[in-house]
Design a protein that fits this description.
Elements: H1 3-12, H2 20-27, H3 33-42, H4 55-62, H5 66-71
């Protein structure tokens, strides 16, 4: 907790910040290989109408199931 605040603190001091949430969103954007692999493993229920990832559905699936979380 407090990752955003810490990131801003580092940025204000000119230090590089890597935001894994931004990276994950880019990797899972519509048309990417990662999203296709997720769709193939978890089904169309995890794909939104706009072709993006339904993060709420993925969270529901992986946080209650160790095997699904490892697959992701």
């Amino acid at each position: 907790m407090g990752k955003s605040a810490a990131g801003r603190w580092f940025e204000r001091r000119g230090l590089p910040v890597v935001d894994s949430d931004v990276i994950a969103r880019k990797l899972c954007a519509p048309g990417t290989e990662a999203l296709a692999a997720i769709r193939d493993r978890f089904g169309m229920d995890v794909i939104a109408e706009d072709g993006g990832l339904r993060r709420d559905e993925m969270a529901r699936r992986i946080f209650g199931d160790d095997e699904s979380r490892k697959a992701l």
